[in-house]
Every structure is written in structure tokens, then in C-alpha cells.
Write a structure and sequence with these properties.
The structure is a single chain. The protein has about 675 residues and is an alpha/beta fold. It is built from 25 helices and twelve strands. The strands form three sheets. It has a six-stranded mixed β-sheet, with helices on both faces. A four-stranded antiparallel β-sheet has the order 2-1-4-5. Strands 11-12 form a two-stranded antiparallel sheet. α18 packs across α20 and α19 packs antiparallel against α20. The longest helix is centred in the C-terminal third of the chain and has 31 residues.
Length: about 675
């Protein structure tokens, strides 16, 4: 019975009474609870246990430029740099839950981002994966990262989130196996009762903040990576949720031979005890690295005294805080004590052996390769350690599912979110329909007479200009989706080309329906030529225009860091495009410095095509009773006044479709090159 007590005491919350040897009923109850959790974890880990991946790093240093503030919120680099991480080293073994702890600003997230290849600042140091220099492409395949922020589709339910994540990370699999995995992860993360609750967000209620946090972890667990990074995992979680999440992660790390590395700010005593290894940071420097069980004796050995009424985790943070003068003395003692400690010497000795082993192995492989011909198999030799990892990495491309599966899953998910979110589709459709009714009633049933010539032109111009300008309303939704794409792309869930194609496929039916409804209202209310061919060309042209405009917005949103800047840039562009439509001023009268804009103006191509379509074979009757009296005017004369006589109306449609290809391609290229996740 005492053995059971020792096994279960570490997993009992502080709020519960810890079982004693005499409390047999309580011991059995706690043991049963622990066995149930282990059972859930066992179901999660069916056929997923890895051989494990060791992550070692030596003397990691990160520097950021020191900037000088200038007027108007500008700044410039001074040429000097500040170290925010200074000679940090460590070895993370498979099957360990590692905590990176330190006060605010100590470099916890910087170290996590550096190890996870998400740091874009000036760096130095060496990182090894399974005793080999880290291969970045391979590393991304076997590792996953959970950010501080929870980016989820608001209208997708908890279970659907895991289902889509499973399809992306694991590919097409047996449905029963998939369902078992999802149900197990829901149980482990305490989300079973919320399985059919939507994620929710700013506009729509759903999961609470803590539940969203757990869902973010659950999505990553679906992939069962060999290395898992968690940034401030307990932020937003209540005490009980934090306890059970960390308890589950410890079991998963041990059972699956996984390395789980978590930055954590101020854990409770029970959560702190879950960690196998602890890395303490203060002002970017190492204060301790080693087994969590040894940190107390190490600190006491430095002559520091732990208050009786303070938890160990709180005391450690108190000793290494660098923000207050009262703590500077203890901080310096700890930093100096670590540098001179036997644990530090053992760490560097182990790193020396690792480096020596790598150099010998590398020299042997190079020597062997030099003895073989180019056709020999030794040319492609890789170390057995990395070779084993490559065999276990999912998919030849580094993704768990094929490209077509990615397109299918992403399209399916986007349709779900699109149809359920009124701000994305239904409110936009209502907005466009309302504007179409306003346009149709203002220019209601125009007569085909000379005095109405200008009215026809204005009706066309206003419809072209503002239908396209209102595409700007899609930007907030695109930015909400962008955050999710950034998260998933950098976790190797899918390729950006698969996402771009799925986004295009989702846009097609909505824009076609919107074009048909809105154009029907405008066309027949205004009284344009009652001809089926002209009408369907009218609808087709606007459909192509909407596609081009959304593609332009898609590109600007992808390339702009903030949605307000994207809205400003798109508004400026669409406003500029409207000035060169050829309505307010003849195209040949626009100054040469701006005349080129007509060739990239979406509104110009729409207006030109529709004007040729409408005016090419009609005649406006004379109005002798008007003031002044007007003679009969042919449609060709109207086109000559507009400066587009002789234009082929299909050129405009072709130009719009070319814009769709160009802007979507630019957006895809930008996301591929720039969505690195590096800070």
C-alpha cells in the first residue's frame, strides 16, 4: 500500500487531502483516478510511441538591435546590440517534461522560440538533434509548437477542430481509430462535455478562454510529435485545469517517449513537481539546469534560505528576480553559483562528449564517402540516428497528409466556418443586396432616350465602383483566418499552396451566388437591354470582378501585418482605381504619370466590358422637347466619348481572370516565403 501512496501522491492537487498509509479508501480512490487517466493516455498513444528525440544546445545567444527613438514614432538602429539570451545550454532527453522558468523578461519565450526555429534575431550557438547538427526541415516534421495566443475558427466545434487536425496531421485513416483517438484526447484535456460546443471568439460565444487553451493543446496532441513546445501553457487556465492538463502531459511524455518543453511563469507546488527537468533563467542567463528534484538542495547549498511559508517555485523566482534591488544580491549568488557548480561542469562535459562524438562520426562518414564512387550508396549516407527520425517523420514532404487531402480538408473546414458565420457570408450578402436595391430604385427603369444617356453611364459606373470597393469588408475575416494559417503552416499541417487553392474553391460558389442575386436586381430594375446574352455577360463580368477584387484583398491581407493597414491600403487602391475608369475624365486626358493605372484597375476593366456590352448596338432616341433639344445618339458614339470605342469586351474578362491568377500566386508566394513564424 505504501508503494501506491508514493506513486499517487505526486498527482494529488494541493486542495485535496493527501492520502496516508492508514487512509486505504482514499489511496484506492486516488489510485483509481490515476489509473483512469493513464487508461485515457494509453488509448491516445495507441501505435504512436516514438523511439524519442534528444534535443541538445550549447551557448545559445540571441541579440537584438538597440534602437533610437525618432519623431513621429519612428526609430533607427544605433548599431549596438543587447543580449536577451546569453550562453544558455542544456540537454532535453526523450520522455521528459521540461519546465523553463524565470521572472518576466528573463528570456523564457526567447529560448523556446530559438529552440523551435522561430527566432529571427541575430543568434549564435549550436543545436543538436539526436546527437547530430539539427536539420531544420526534419526538425519541423517531428516538432510542434503551441503559442500563447489561441487562434481557432470561431464557428467550428471542439470535436470538428480535432477531426480536421487529425485529417491534416495523420492523413486518411481508419474511422474507428480516428474516433478513438479524438475521444481519448477530449477526455485527457477535459473537453468531452464541450465536444459539440463551437470554439467561439470576439463576436460569438463558445468555449471559455481556458477551454480554448486546452483545445489548442489538444489539436497539437493529435499529431503526436516527438518534440512539443508549449509557450505559457497555463496562462488563462484555472488551478484545477492547469493541474490536470500538466498531469496529462507528464503521462503523455513518459508513455510516448516525447520531449515536452514548456515555459511556465509561476506554477503551483503540485504543478511544479510534475516537471522532470528544470531550466531557470534570469536576465537571459542560466541560473540552473537539471532534475527538478535537485534544485532545492542546489539552492540551499549556495547559502540561501527558503522561508517556511513559501513554495519552492515562488522562492526560486524570488531569488533570481532582476527587477528589484532587494533581489540583486541573491540573483548574483545564484548565477555565480550555477557557473561554479558540479551540475554545470557535468552538463558541459556531456556536451563536449556529444560534440566529439559528432565530429568523429562526421569525419568517418566523409572518409567513407570519399572512398566510394558517385554511384555508390555511401554518397547518400546519413547518420543512423537521423535516418531513424526520417523514417518516423510523417510523409515524404514532411506533412502527415497528401496535398490533395490537405485541399479537401481545408475546403471542407472553410465551408463549415463560412456557412455558419453570418459576418462572413450572410451580412455581406445582405449588404450587397441592399446596395443593389438602392441602385436599382435610384436609376429605376431608365428610358432609352438621349437625356438618359448620362444616367446609364452613371448607373454602370456607380455599380462597378462601389460593388468592388465594398469587397474591403472581407478583410477582418481574412485576418482572423490568417492567424490560424500562420499557426498551422508553421506546425507543418499543410502547404500554403493547398490553403490558397482551398480558399479559392470556397470563394467560387459564394461569389457566384452573390453576383447572380445582386446583378439581377440592378440589371432589371435599372432597365438595361432585355437580352439573355447581355444579362449573363453582365453577371459573368461582375463575378470575375469580385474574384479579382477578393484576390487583391487576399494578397494585401497576406502581406500586411495589421488589418487596419490592410483596409487603408485596399481603400486607397480601390479609390485610385475608380478615378481611372474613364467616367469622371476621358482616359486620353489623364496625365501620363497616372494613365498606366487603368491597366491594373479592376473597376476599369469591369466598366469597359459592361459599357461595350450595353452600348455597342443600341440607340438613344432624340428628345426634341428637352432643354436643350438632343438628337438621336448611337451607342457607338457614347463609346467614342468614353474613349473605349473598338474595345473587345472579352479583353476585360480575360484581364480580370489574369489578375485572379497573379494576385493569388503573389499571396501564395508571400505566405511561403514570409510566413516563417520567426519573431
Amino acid at each position: 500500500m505504501s508503494a501506491v501512496v508514493e506513486e499517487t501522491q505526486a498527482f494529488v492537487p494541493a486542495t485535496e487531502e493527501r492520502p496516508s498509509v492508514d487512509s486505504s479508501d482514499k489511496v484506492e480512490e486516488v489510485a483509481l483516478e490515476d489509473l483512469e487517466l493513464k487508461s485515457s493516455v494509453t488509448r491516445v498513444l495507441t501505435s504512436t510511441r516514438h523511439q524519442g528525440a534528444q534535443l541538445a544546445f550549447r551557448e545559445l545567444t540571441v541579440e537584438v538591435p538597440i534602437k533610437k527613438n525618432l519623431p513621429l514614432g519612428l526609430s533607427k538602429n544605433t548599431g549596438e546590440y543587447k543580449k536577451i539570451l546569453n550562453d544558455v545550454s542544456g540537454i532535453f532527453e526523450p520522455g521528459n517534461l521540461v519546465f523553463i522558468m524565470g521572472p518576466s523578461g528573463s528570456g523564457k519565450s526567447t529560448l523556446l522560440d530559438t529552440l523551435a526555429d522561430r527566432m529571427g534575431q541575430r543568434m549564435s550557438g549550436t543545436v543538436y538533434l539526436n546527437r547530430e547538427l539539427k536539420d531544420e526541415a526534419l526538425f519541423k516534421r517531428i516538432s510542434k509548437y503551441v503559442q500563447q495566443e489561441d487562434h481557432l475558427f470561431e464557428m467550428i466545434t471542439t470535436k470538428e477542430c480535432l477531426s480536421f487536425a487529425y485529417d491534416l496531421y495523420r492523413g486518411r485513416d481508419d474511422k474507428a481509430k480516428k474516433e478513438e483517438r479524438i475521444q481519448s484526447i477530449l477526455a485527457v484535456m477535459g473537453l468531452t462535455e464541450q465536444a459539440d460546443v463551437r470554439a467561439g471568439g470576439m463576436l460569438f460565444k463558445g468555449l471559455s478562454g481556458g477551454q480554448q487553451r486546452r483545445l489548442s493543446v489538444a489539436e497539437t496532441l493529435v499529431a503526436m510529435p516527438q518534440i512539443m513546445f508549449l509557450d505559457e501553457i497555463t496562462s488563462g487556465l484555472d488551478a484545477a485545469s492547469s493541474y490536470y492538463v500538466m498531469k496529462s502531459l507528464k503521462h503523455i511524455a513518459h508513455a510516448n517517449n516525447m520531449v515536452i518543453i514548456a515555459t511556465i511563469h509561476q506554477p503551483s507546488e503540485d504543478i511544479f513537481e510534475f516537471s522532470d527537468k528544470l531550466l531557470l533563467l534570469s536576465s537571459g542567463q542560466m541560473a540552473y539546469f537539471g532534475p527538478t528534484a535537485n534544485v532545492k538542495s542546489h539552492m540551499l547549498g549556495l547559502g540561501l534560505q527558503m522561508p517556511a511559508d513559501m513554495s519552492l517555485a515562488d522562492w526560486l523566482l524570488f531569488c533570481i528576480n532582476s527587477d528589484f534591488e532587494d533581489a540583486l544580491e541573491s540573483k548574483n549568488i545564484v548565477l555565480e553559483g550555477w557557473r561554479n557548480s558540479e551540475a554545470a561542469q557535468n552538463l558541459y562535459r556531456e556536451l563536449d562528449e556529444l560534440e566529439l562524438d559528432y565530429e568523429k562520426k562526421h569525419e568517418a562518414e566523409m572518409h567513407a564517402a570519399s572512398q566510394m564512387s558517385i554511384s555508390a550508396k555511401g554518397v547518400g549516407m546519413v547518420s543512423s540516428k537521423l535516418g531513424d527520425l526520417r523514417e518516423t517523420a510523417l510523409g515524404d514532404s514532411g506533412h502527415g497528409s497528401s496535398w490533395w487531402t490537405q485541399v479537401r480538408v481545408l475546403t471542407h473546414r472553410s465551408f463549415y466556418n463560412l456557412l455558419r458565420d453570418p459576418t462572413i457570408i450572410w451580412m455581406r450578402l445582405m449588404m450587397y443586396t441592399s446596395l443593389a436595391i438602392v441602385i436599382g430604385t435610384v436609376w429605376l427603369q431608365l428610358d432609352l432616350v438621349a437625356t438618359a444617356e448620362f444616367d446609364y453611364i452613371c448607373a454602370l459606373a456607380f455599380t462597378c465602383g462601389f460593388f468592388i470597393f465594398m469587397v474591403i469588408a472581407v478583410v477582418p475575416a481574412q485576418f482572423a483566418e490568417k492567424a490560424v494559417v500562420l499557426k498551422e503552416k508553421n506546425n507543418y499541417a499543410y502547404t500554403v499552396s493547398a490553403y490558397s487553392l482551398s480558399r479559392f474553391l470556397v470563394d467560387l460558389p459564394f461569389l457566384s451566388i452573390m453576383s447572380l442575386i445582386c446583378c439581377s436586381i440592378v440589371y432589371w430594375l435599372v432597365g438595361f437591354t432585355a437580352d439573355a446574352g447581355k444579362f449573363f455577360y453582365f453577371v459573368l463580368t461582375f463575378f470575375c470582378g469580385f474574384l479579382a477584387a477578393e484576390s487583391f484583398a487576399f494578397f494585401v491581407s497576406a502581406a500586411t501585418p495589421h488589418y487596419l493597414l490592410a483596409i487603408l491600403n485596399i481603400a486607397f487602391a480601390f479609390g485610385g482605381f475608380m478615378t481611372v475608369m474613364g467616367v469622371m475624365i476621358r482616359l486620353d486626358e489623364i496625365t501620363w504619370a497616372l494613365r498606366w493605372m487603368q491597366y491594373i484597375s479592376i473597376q476599369f476593366y469591369i466598366f469597359m466590358s459592361l459599357a461595350v456590352n450595353e452600348f455597342s448596338d443600341i440607340t438613344f432616341a432624340a428628345t426634341p422637347d428637352s432643354t436643350p433639344p438632343l438628337d438621336e445618339i448611337t451607342g457607338q458614339e457614347v463609346l467614342e466619348v468614353l474613349g473605349i470605342a473598338g474595345w473587345n469586351q472579352w479583353i476585360g474578362v480575360g484581364a480580370l481572370l489574369a489578375m485572379v491568377v497573379v494576385y493569388r500566386s503573389l499571396a501564395t508566394l508571400w505566405m511561403y516565403k514570409m510566413y516563417t513564424g520567426k519573431k
